[in-house]
């Protein structure tokens, strides 16, 4: 089996590691605009060899795992180059612009739009880890637009990686993911900014930070090159969630200004049910 | 050695467990307004016996680990009841109101104001764990107001628990802790609220949540009974940090509205140095 991974970072690299472990006879080719990353991926054993777009005709799988703005440009070129039995999938955090970009491509039926809800705050080939997708959700959009035989091939791989599948329209995906992923990243970045700005004048503030702070700012380590185009592509939904979040924070602040501690207690108590929701996530 | 723990939850209970492990011959008495918690603490082996305020005269250590509003009321009563060689310490997340509440007490020199920067999002006796304080920071306020001999006794215990000590004025403590702890909690609670409100109409939204969301909303599981009085006591500082946070979020939203993606990239890139800061925390 020939697998091409375009963009050898956290997601593409982790898929490469798992596929190689599942199918030791497969050959994993890597394609990356960053020559250093490509060499690093080979040195780390994340991929077997460097590949070329011109060779995609013989590929079984092509995994496009690049920032979502790059995916818009790369995907049509990839589809132009593949063979009739190649299945291409893309793993980015926005789905509507990607699906639109390939909607009228003659090889649309060789493409499957996915979003594996898996990751860490790290990036690059050295961030690739085994088992990243085990027990995670993979959201698949517009499955009906993919050729049935190729759907089956992709789904078998996702199952082998340990993922559960959810089908969704690209528009719903982008709307919902703004709440449960994109907003969390902005919340974390801006929390980091607020504290860093303070710390400029107060060097020892971080001596006082505990695991709670660390947990809420963890996502502020994420890659701006990956996240800027996500926010750009999902701009309207992200603005909407930010407006709601800012409004909730402002309301909480007003309760504090007005010293309405009963309401503050009730606010927190009603959000406490996030416990059960998060427990449900782990099932 | 006789140790009294007033309020057997996450912090008091975890201290009890560690002290018993360090000094197996000590007796750990528990005092708690919640009878169920008291019995649970005995059943779990977190404490040895139920104690009484009237018996504090013979105590070596009294640990007051109750919500900060309760601490204001309980501390003077505790100081009234203790013996000359008893050292009392309180572990809450605000220090100025507590220090003021005992400032003129005749037994002020038997008290040491502390804030161990340690915890989890859980509460109650079942949340008590061994080793919670290992490698953590303990902030001590107004150390000069504690009798030297009793300071030594307390510091020896904190060292045995594995904590490093930082001395700070109560006012600085409350100002800084608003940034690195109190704000994180509100950010997390309001993020949870924003997503829960959305989810009322969109049941499957949480199917899409990954570890990033989980990390940013973890603190929204925290106890409202513990956190409401913290926000009340540190109201001015918390309002200030919230204003700065809301202003940063609004500015980010405006960059999105104006489609200034270079500025968005730069915002995130400049916050990325939180990586080094968080790594520094682990040292």
From TrEMBL, chains A, B:
Keywords in alphabetical order: Oxidoreductase
Any one GO biological process: tyrosine biosynthetic process
Entry-linked SUPFAM superfamilies: 6-phosphogluconate dehydrogenase C-terminal domain-like, NAD(P)-binding Rossmann-fold domains
Prephenate/arogenate dehydrogenase domain mapped to chain residues: 1-283
EC number per UniProt: 1.3.1.12
Sample GO molecular function, one term: prephenate dehydrogenase (NAD+) activity
UniProt keyword RNA-binding present: no
Oxidoreductase is among the record's keywords: yes
Superkingdom of the organism of origin: Bacteria
Listed NCBIfam families: PRK08507.1
Protein name: Prephenate dehydrogenase
């Amino acid at each position: 089996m020939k697998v091409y991974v375009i963009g050898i970072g956290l997601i593409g690299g982790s898929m490469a590691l798992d596929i190689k472990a599942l199918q030791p006879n497969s050959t994993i080719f890597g394609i990356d605009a960053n020559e250093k990353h490509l060499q690093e991926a080979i040195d780390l054993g994340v991929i077997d060899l460097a590949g070329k777009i011109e060779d995609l005709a013989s590929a079984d799988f092509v995994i496009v795992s690049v920032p979502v703005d790059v995916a818009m440009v790369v995907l049509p070129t990839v589809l132009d180059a593949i063979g009739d039995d190649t299945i291409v999938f893309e793993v980015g955090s926005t789905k509507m612009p990607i699906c639109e970009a390939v909607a009228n491509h003659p090889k649309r039926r060789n493409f499957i739009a996915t979003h594996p809800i898996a990751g860490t705050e790290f990036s690059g080939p050295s961030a690739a880890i085994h088992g990243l997708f085990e027990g995670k959700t993979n959201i698949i959009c517009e499955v009906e637009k993919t050729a049935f035989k190729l759907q089956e091939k992709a789904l078998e791989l996702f199952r082998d990686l340990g993922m559960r599948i959810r089908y969704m329209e690209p528009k719903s995906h982008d709307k919902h993911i703004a709440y449960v992923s994109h907003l969390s990243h902005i919340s974390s970045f801006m929390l980091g900014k607020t504290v860093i700005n303070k710390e400029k004048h107060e060097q020892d503030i971080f001596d006082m930070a505990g695991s709670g702070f660390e947990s809420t700012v963890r996502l502020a380590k994420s890659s701006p090159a990956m996240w800027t185009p996500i926010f750009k592509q999902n701009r309207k939904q992200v603005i909407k969630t930010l407006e709601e979040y800012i409004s909730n924070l402002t309301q909480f602040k007003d309760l504090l200004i007005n010293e309405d501690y009963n309401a503050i207690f009730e606010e927190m108590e009603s959000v406490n049910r996030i416990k059960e929701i998060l427990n449900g996530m782990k099932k």
